[in-house]
Amino acid sequence: MLNKKRGPRDEGAFSSGLPAPLAEFQKVEKMYAHLEQLLLRIGFLDTNNPKRIMHTLRRIFGRANLGDRDVAILRGIFRQL
């Protein structure tokens, strides 16, 4: 019988109790590139120094231990903006 366990990474999903595998490095890097392009396009990043804020955003997302599904969801949001 499966137990429904809730955790920070699998809210509402059936879980084996093991953490979900992390997204591949290249997928996360593509997500960061996508985010940087988006934030430059909407004028959020300083065009003279976009890496300043991107460094902070990388730290924030890095602490989240993103999985493949997380990266796909975020990129889907970025595409809609």
Task: Please render the helix and strand layout as text.
Elements: H1 25-41, H2 50-63, H3 68-80
Helix pairs in contact: 1-3
Which labels suit this protein?
3 helices, mainly alpha, 81 residues, elongated
Give a short synopsis of this structure.
This protein has helices spanning 25-41, 50-63, 68-80.
**If you average the pLDDT, what whole number results?**
87
Radius of gyration: 15 Å
What's the assembly state of these chains?
single chain
What portion of residues is helical? 40-55%
Count of distinct strands: 0
Number of helices: 3
What is the makeup of the main sheet? none
What is the element string, with H for helices and E for strands?
Answer: HHH
| Overall body shape | elongated
Could you say which structural class the secondary elements and strand pairing correspond to?
A: mainly alpha
What does this structure look like?
The protein is an all-alpha fold and 81 residues long. It has a domain at 34-80. The chain contains three helices and no strands. The chain has helices at residues 25-41, 50-63, 68-80. α1 (25-41) runs parallel beside α3. The radius of gyration is 15 Å and the shape is elongated. The termini are far apart. Residues 1-6 have low confidence and may be disordered.
